[in-house]
Amino acid sequence: MTTTRRLLLAAPALLATPFAASAQERWSPTRPVRIIVGFSPGGTTDIAARILAEFLSHRLGQSVVVENRPGAGGNIANEVVAKGETDGHTLLMQTIGGGAINFPLYGNRMPIKPEDLVALGLLLRVPNAIFVNPSLPVNSLQELVAYARARPGQLNYGSSGLGTSLHMTAELLKMVAEIDITHVPFRGSGPMLQEVLAGRVQMAVDNLPSVVNHLREGRLRPLAVTSATRSPALPNVPTTAEAGFPAVEAVAWFGLQGPARMPAAAVQRYGAEIDAAVKDNGVWSKLADLGGMKPDLTPDGGTSPEGFTRYMAAELQKWTDVVRRARVTLEG
User: Fold this and answer.
1) What is the CA radius of gyration of the chain?
2) 3-126+252-326: CATH number
3) CA-to-CA distance for 103 and 111, rounded, in angstroms?
4) Signal sequence: where (predicted)?
């Protein structure tokens, strides 16, 4: 049975068990909570986790710390949480890569199954940005494509790792624009950005929050954002559709998960607190300034464990189709 079908079949059961604890007493952690991040410090996953950790520390009455466990496109962090303690004190900052793309990409080599983790809440969605080192003589996505077509195999592009939405966005561009560019994966956006800034990697794709300041200040040159509409954080940067490549659309997302056997009352508590976080003016001003978009899984723009479960199942189906269509492999 495919991982996509397994998650879709499991979704009703997931919705029926951990979220059905409304009559239980309100759960609270009894010691510090860890949020495991599958990427290096400095990337969007890390930034979002630290903003959420600060909020949760005040709300839960316990310290909430971020622990970076980079590697394997987020799979190391996936495994740490899925196979770790189940009492609600170890959580995962999940991404589109670790929560959707990796399952069809890694196939039987995935260390976990989708049902090994339970959804708590979606924190934010963000567009990706396609950008270059300013030394590259291109000023638009169309110019980049023309430049790459004239120099097959000579351009390198960076991403935060195999299977991340950054990798997949660039692969979509390669497929749609029919260009030959070489993938250079890193263990997170932080080290990738350093190489692009230094000019050793000519172009890259990154989640907007972790690169937006470099783009605003001219250290890197933005060519397009991958959302359906322009980002308020970079209003002068066109979308990929406006640049002539409407099929290159990808919105990354970041949310909290826990191990599948986590207490139902803990699932509910974390779900409520994440929903409160996205509705908190202080939290959201930080995320919006970085280009974040609301979860929009509830009528008021918020999130819930049930809604995040359904969202992840749909994302798994979507990116399974993309991986197969683009013929992406672990060799990049």
Assistant:
1) 19
2) 3.40.190.150
3) 10
4) 1-23
Using CA atoms of 178, 182, 185, 188 in order, give the dihedral in degrees to the nearest 10. -60
Tens digits of per-residue pLDDT, 163-222? 778 888 999 899 999 999 999 999 888 899 999 999 999 999 998 988 999 999 999 999
Residue 146 is encoded by which pair of tokens?
Answer: 């023309």
Give the tokens for residue 280: 């908190």
Q: Which amino acid is at 68?
A: N
Fill in the amino acid letter for 23.
Answer: A
**Helix spans in the chain (H):** 3-16, 44-60, 75-82, 96, 102-106, 141-150, 165-177, 189-198, 208-216, 264-278, 281-289, 305-326
Rounded to whole angstroms, the maximal C-alpha distance in the chain is: 65
Position 158 pLDDT exceeds 90: yes
pLDDT tens digits, one per residue of 243-286 = 999 999 889 899 999 999 999 999 999 999 999 999 999 999 99
* Paired tokens of 174: 């390669």
Is 330:111 a contact under the CB 8 Å cutoff?
Answer: no
Higher-pLDDT residue of 20 and 181 is: 181
As a whole number of angstroms, the distance between CA 157 and CA 174 comes to 11
- C-alpha triplet 22, 27, 28: angle, nearest 5°: 155
Structure tokens at 190: 């932080």
Residue partners of 63: CB distance under 8 A and separation at least 6: 32, 33, 57
Sign of the CA dihedral running 260, 263, 268, 270: negative
Per the CB < 8 A criterion, the answer to whether 48 and 284 are in contact is no
pTM here? 0.80
In this structure, whether the domain defined by 127-225 belongs to CATH 3.40.190.10 is answered with: yes
Domain range summary for the chain, segments of one domain joined by +: 3-126+252-326, 127-225
